[in-house]
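Page 37, continued from 36.
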């Protein structure tokens, strides 16, 4: 294991399979890194995050977080928060209660806890909306609630699986700004799955490129987006950019 990754997140020779589909991950991120996880649909990005969170168990290999082997720990015992594309909230609980779950799964909340929740709502632009139910919020607001919960949990590792994919471009930008501000404030190690090269270029320091169930390349964002960047990655974003009508200028 690379010494640089102690304190961060390491997938040490991880093997996993869904029947015929085999995946293999070997990658390390230093503590506090902000990494964009990119790659074609079905390449294994969600599986990578699920292994770190403990929602899937590897057949072999180790997952090390903050220098501790967490491979045998259930998700609740790992120092990790995860945000999905949607359905992050309990429909029958208020915004406040949904955020409060990040502090206490039984929702026995102290006055101090309530103050922390109010601060997180304020911080994520949800002040005054604490009593609402998720269905009384827009899609963007619901993702803000998920981020408010991440804030109160304050775990060292934050996993986000296409969290803003269902939002329009302006709202996505706004949410990325909020995410960047949270990262600057608390410095968790972040893995953000995104299909947008522009998002990765703008906010991530590193890129982890997944292809065919493996880490095809990992490095700094500057290395990735240079003309000398990993071939498979440039091919992938070339396709993505052509598909969205933006040509990549090659010299
Ligand atoms: P991505 O998030 O990059 O789109 P996934 O990690 O969801 O990819 O999936 C990786 C591979 O594993 C794909 O081939 C997918 O079909 C397969 N897979 C994912 N989840 C399951 C599952 N629950 N059962 C069987 N195969 C799965
Ligand atoms: Mg996925």
């Amino acid at each position: 294991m690379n010494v640089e990754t102690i304190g961060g997140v390491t997938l040490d020779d991880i093997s996993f399979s869904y029947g015929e589909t085999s995946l293999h991950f070997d990658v390390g991120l230093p503590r506090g890194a902000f990494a964009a996880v990119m790659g074609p649909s079905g390449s294994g990005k969600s599986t990578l995050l699920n292994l770190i969170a403990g929602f899937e168990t590897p057949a072999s290999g180790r997952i090390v977080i903050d220098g501790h082997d967490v491979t045998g720990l259930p998700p609740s015992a790992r120092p990790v928060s995860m945000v999905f594309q949607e359905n992050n909230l309990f429909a029958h609980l208020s915004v406040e209660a949904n955020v409060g779950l990040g502090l206490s799964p039984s929702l026995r909340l102290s006055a101090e806890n309530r103050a922390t929740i109010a601060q997180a709502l304020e911080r994520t632009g949800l002040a005054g909306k604490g009593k609402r139910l998720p269905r009384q919020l827009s899609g963007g607001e619901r993702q803000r609630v998920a981020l408010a919960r991440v804030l109160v949990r304050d775990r060292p590792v934050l996993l986000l699986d296409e969290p803003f994919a269902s939002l329009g471009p302006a709202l996505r930008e706004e949410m990325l700004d909020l995410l960047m501000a949270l990262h600057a404030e608390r410095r968790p190690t972040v893995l953000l799955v995104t299909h947008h090269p522009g998002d990765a270029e703008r906010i991530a320091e590193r890129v982890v490129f997944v292809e065919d169930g493996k880490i095809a390349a990992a490095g700094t964002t500057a290395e990735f987006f240079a003309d000398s960047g990993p071939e498979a990655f440039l091919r992938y974003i070339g396709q993505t950019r052509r598909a969205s009508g933006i040509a990549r200028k090659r010299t």
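The first strand starts at residue 9 and ends at 18. Flag for discussion at group meeting. The chain has two domains: 3-79+156-244, 90-154.
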